[in-house]
Amino acid sequence: MVLRNDLSLKTTALLVQKWGDDYLPFFMRLETELAQLEAEEAARTRVQKVLQDG
To answer: Which residues are CB-neighbours of 8 under 8 A, at least 6 positions away?
Structure first.
């Protein structure tokens, strides 16, 4: 997860550098939504593991 965050941050920085600061809020919103989806998926995986392990 840390590696994805590092790559994501670099990608966001490159996109902002290319498209300009006006797009920063848009890219940050995408990053936030992606992080939330990843957190939900990780939580779901943990719950499934607990249920399987009983």
So the answer is: 31, 34
